[in-house]
């Protein structure tokens, strides 16, 4: 583990001081005396912010670093799923190489942790998970990666998928995923039954994709609430996207959010610009653990996205009508502490006793840094400088 | 006027060739023989695209280049208007200096034309217009600026405003603006009566801000349709924002769009991420002249925005669910030819006989350049290189 004397920085945007790191842990914040023999860095009066967290992405899907992927296909969820499953290998999307590119990009831009869904289906078995697991090993000490066993093509309609999810949870995936029990599987009772059985068997959390909108999504949420309560899964269930919470009936959405808070269900948002998305402000007020993620970036589904949680904070902020400085600060907390809350990270933050995982941000104030998609002159992981000015010490393959 | 032999470029993303410019006009596109004595530039195989057009912005409002403007005020339209009017001068927002910073930023990022609304109210009289007119003079040959006399604080509720609008149209403003005849003025018949009278008197086009949503905005549009028809103003009216066209009742929105097309009314969108916005695709299919703009950037209203129409193309593309390469190309056409259609520019485009106003874009394809917010190694205006790599030949004050 690493030692570092970081001078001339503004922790969390507060007054200029130093940070002292020993064995990868922050041991002092303030005016620090010179430390003979210890590595020293000058932070240039930048803001120090806890490591950014991409709490919802897909490391196995990106075409980042490949040639431009032309897309003139129809924009239908089911056909996007099928196209990707049938063509990803032929297109040259090696799950290890692509996940390396994606994860190194995130680290270079200040992220310290990733929760990545990885496709599991009867075409690929566990080969995509294995590719991303190689990346997780290769990037130890650079960025931490948590894996979600994700049945992208559905659970109930493709026999053999349940067994693959079971095997994935026994072989390195920490979280169980799911997807649109009504919209994709046409069998909410069936899929949710499988998810709760597997989660209880393996003692893992669940993080389900729920693109279902309006009344359909609310229906599925209510089925989830019943089962979280019946199985004692409070605090161990997450809903990604949760587009239904952006419904125009804000009274009904408010009641759903109240129940989400009561059951300590986590919400993961990507601030999808063209969809109805949850009000991050309303979730915060209700005390719901809420994280954010870039989702897929530049994949066969669509061209948008960057491996950059500051870019994502801007997208979510613009989408949810953030204007004030305090709300801008909350956007930055969403893409950092929010993800840590969802992933239940320990010793996270810029404080004495925490792991020295943080990024420097150039900006007059925290709000300014969010709007600017601030340059990141230095990223520190476990006390070690792992990136400078957007370039990681590990080369992209 | 300027001559230039530009080598090694891809006009509109097509095959690599040269462009020959004489007296500021494109005279040849293809394999061009060496021209003794003529300035030569190497385009590095970049795409050549017509000058970007910010067809809806507010040059007098930005805090760009000033210290960070902290904002912890309430987010209500009326109170934003009042705060800005009462504080802009005290905050140090000089209309000439700020509009210079904003317009130079746009030019540096590839824009050749701007349509800017400028506030006219009984507090400032015409002083803000005069400041922006100085900028227009100072930037002749760098970027073309069209001015809209804009009654930001309302027309009917503040006696004296009509006379100021009249004076502005007699003194350099080419277009007449308006704002929410119901929502701000509480008097749609009154404001629209004034606007049509002034437009007919001065022979100018109208471009009205219409933030009114849903049924209210549809009502105001119907009042506008009646008056465009009665006054023979077909082809000379524009509606900015037009949030009502993003209503969930797509059948009704479709009927409004059909009438907009029939009356040749122009639509200006900013793709406002947190609002309901018109479907650019539907407008295109209906043949509606549609331009786009950055709106205010980093002003007292809110922190977002860049003086960059490629950034805006990305925002509108994400907001309107663009995914395919052809739709990405349409986004780039929206922020270029679309604005030219609204402003009825002549001799615009990358073609023989057109004015040599264009930007270079780095990208494998046109779609790729939109997603990347492509670097712009060179911007040409009237055959003269006016910016390189994001820096204009005119310094920001």
UniProtKB/TrEMBL annotation, chains A, B:
InterPro entries: Amidohydro_3 (IPR013108), DNase_TatD-rel_CS (IPR018228), Metal-dep_hydrolase_composite (IPR011059), Metal_Hydrolase (IPR032466), Metallo-hydrolase_Enzymes (IPR052349). PROSITE patterns: TATD_1 (PS01137). Residues 42-386 form the Amidohydrolase domain. Pfam families: Amidohydro_3 (PF07969). SUPFAM superfamilies: Composite domain of metallo-dependent hydrolases, Metallo-dependent hydrolases. It comes from the Bacteria. One of its GO terms (molecular function) is hydrolase activity, acting on carbon-nitrogen (but not peptide) bonds, in cyclic amidines. This is Cytosine deaminase. It comes from Devosia riboflavina.
């Amino acid at each position: 583990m690493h030692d570092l004397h970081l001078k001339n920085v503004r922790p969390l945007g507060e007054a200029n001081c130093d940070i002292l790191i020993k064995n990868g842990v922050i041991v002092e914040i303030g005016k620090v005396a010179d430390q003979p023999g210890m590595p020293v860095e000058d932070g240039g009066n930048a803001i120090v912010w806890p490591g950014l967290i991409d709490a919802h992405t897909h490391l196995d899907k990106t075409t980042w670093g490949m040639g431009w992927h032309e897309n003139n296909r129809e924009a239908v969820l089911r056909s996007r799923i099928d196209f990707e499953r049938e063509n990803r290998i032929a297109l040259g999307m090696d799950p290890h190489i692509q996940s390396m590119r994606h994860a190194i990009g995130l680290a270079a831009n200040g992220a310290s942790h990733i929760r990545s869904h990885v496709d599991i289906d009867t075409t690929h078995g566990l080969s995509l998970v294995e590719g991303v697991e190689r990346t997780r090993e290769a990037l130890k000490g650079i960025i931490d990666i948590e894996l979600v066993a994700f049945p992208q093509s559905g659970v109930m309609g493709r026999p053999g998928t349940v067994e693959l999810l079971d095997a994935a949870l026994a072989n390195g995936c920490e979280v169980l995923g799911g997807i649109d029990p009504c919209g994709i599987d046409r069998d909410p009772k069936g899929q949710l039954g499988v998810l709760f059985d597997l989660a209880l068997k393996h003692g893992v959390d669940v993080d389900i994709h729920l693109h279902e909108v309006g009344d359909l999504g609310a229906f599925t949420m209510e089925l989830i609430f019943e089962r979280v309560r019946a199985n004692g899964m409070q605090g161990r269930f997450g809903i990604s996207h949760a587009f239904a919470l952006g419904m125009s009936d804000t009274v009904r959405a408010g009641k759903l959010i109240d129940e989400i808070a009561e059951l300590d269900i986590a919400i993961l948002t990507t601030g999808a610009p063209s969809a109805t998305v949850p009000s991050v402000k309303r979730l915060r007020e209700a005390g719901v653990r809420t994280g954010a993620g870039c989702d897929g970036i530049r994949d066969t589904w669509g061209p948008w996205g960057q491996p950059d949680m500051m870019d994502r904070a801007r997208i979510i902020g613009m989408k949810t009508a953030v204007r004030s400085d305090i709300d801008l600060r909350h956007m930055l907390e969403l893409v950092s502490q929010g993800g840590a809350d969802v992933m239940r990270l320990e010793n996270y933050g810029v404080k004495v006793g925490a792991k020295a995982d943080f990024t420097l941000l150039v900006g007059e104030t925290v709000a300014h840094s969010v709007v600017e998609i601030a340059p990141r002159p230095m990223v520190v992981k476990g006390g070690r400088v792992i990136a400078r000015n957007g370039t990681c010490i590990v080369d992209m393959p």
